[in-house]
Amino acid sequence: MAVTIKDIAKAAGVSYSTVSRALNGIGAADSEKRQRILQIAEEMGYMPNRAAISLKKSRSYNIGLYFSTIGKMSSPFVLHDVLTGIYSVTGSKYNVMVKGIDMYETGTLNPSYCDGVIVLSQKNEDLLFMEEVHEKGIPMVIICRTVFFDAPNVTTDEAEAMTKIMDYLIENGHRDICVIEGSRGLDSTRERRRGWRASAIRHGLDPDRIPSYEGNYRYDSGYKAARRILEDHSPTAILCFNDEMAFGARNAIYEKGLTVPGDISLTGFDNWDMSGYANMQLTTVERNMGEIARTGTRILLRRLDEGIVDNRRIYLDNRLVVRETVKRIGG
């Protein structure tokens, strides 16, 4: 059986990305670590995939956008904004192929199909796909999450963003707050939960006593969660993990004969297009997916067109967007 980069990494006690960089001459040529890896590779009889290497010498001018399955993502609007951002940078020079990571089968990735890959990732299971991309030497950018991986990451601090909006509710006098969260198992859900809980603690509230309900980032789940909230509690505010669920919650509030923000304040996350011009002027946090995608695509194209390797982790700012759905209560 042929020796792989993973075999060498295990023998050397380093990550597969470190081995890949050493074998591809990235980094200091005379470093002790690189020389040790090359020696181990030679002793193990490692033979690089010459077919893949020769294929990569010719350009396909295709870029693959691989994403966590649409049903698991925060909203289909996210994918739209990401694609718009990518196309604004690639222009007509590159074709963009869009595929779901959940439909990918291990070992099927062909380096000749695309010059580079943008990964819109939300799940830890996606790491297996990223490992194969890296092992096959395909340039990659990871967006919308932080992965401790030898590849550029472009994202926002979602915990910090959710802290901002929870702070805003509490500073406007709200203590009886309910939360509609997103799908379990997603990075965005974990980070946003960490943010609102940190804010609650800082303001002297026990986050375990703040009712939270699971949604799935879709309109209907926000509607159903808000109905359950209104049956079980009498909140002055509902914090939603995205704008789409906030719009669903708004309708559940209206069905109860209540108003936003007269009876219940409401917040979202993402600042998707409808949030600013629909009949509900939603207070939210802007996570600019288009700018995240543009930044990641620029980094990838610099690698493809100029040979510039930039493996930074880049965090773009989040902006609190105050509109008309939060009422100040108390003093």
UniProtKB/TrEMBL annotation:
<protein>
    <submittedName>
        <fullName>LacI family DNA-binding transcriptional regulator</fullName>
    </submittedName>
</protein>
<feature type="domain" description="HTH lacI-type">
    <location>
        <begin position="3"/>
        <end position="57"/>
    </location>
</feature>
<dbReference type="Pfam" id="PF00356">
    <property type="entry name" value="LacI"/>
</dbReference>
<keyword id="KW-0804">Transcription</keyword>
<keyword id="KW-0805">Transcription regulation</keyword>
<dbReference type="InterPro" id="IPR010982">
    <property type="entry name" value="Lambda_DNA-bd_dom_sf"/>
</dbReference>
<dbReference type="InterPro" id="IPR046335">
    <property type="entry name" value="LacI/GalR-like_sensor"/>
</dbReference>
<dbReference type="GO" id="GO:0000976">
    <property type="term" value="F:transcription cis-regulatory region binding"/>
</dbReference>
<dbReference type="GO" id="GO:0003700">
    <property type="term" value="F:DNA-binding transcription factor activity"/>
</dbReference>
<dbReference type="InterPro" id="IPR000843">
    <property type="entry name" value="HTH_LacI"/>
</dbReference>
<dbReference type="InterPro" id="IPR028082">
    <property type="entry name" value="Peripla_BP_I"/>
</dbReference>
<keyword id="KW-0678">Repressor</keyword>
<keyword id="KW-0238">DNA-binding</keyword>
<dbReference type="Pfam" id="PF13377">
    <property type="entry name" value="Peripla_BP_3"/>
</dbReference>
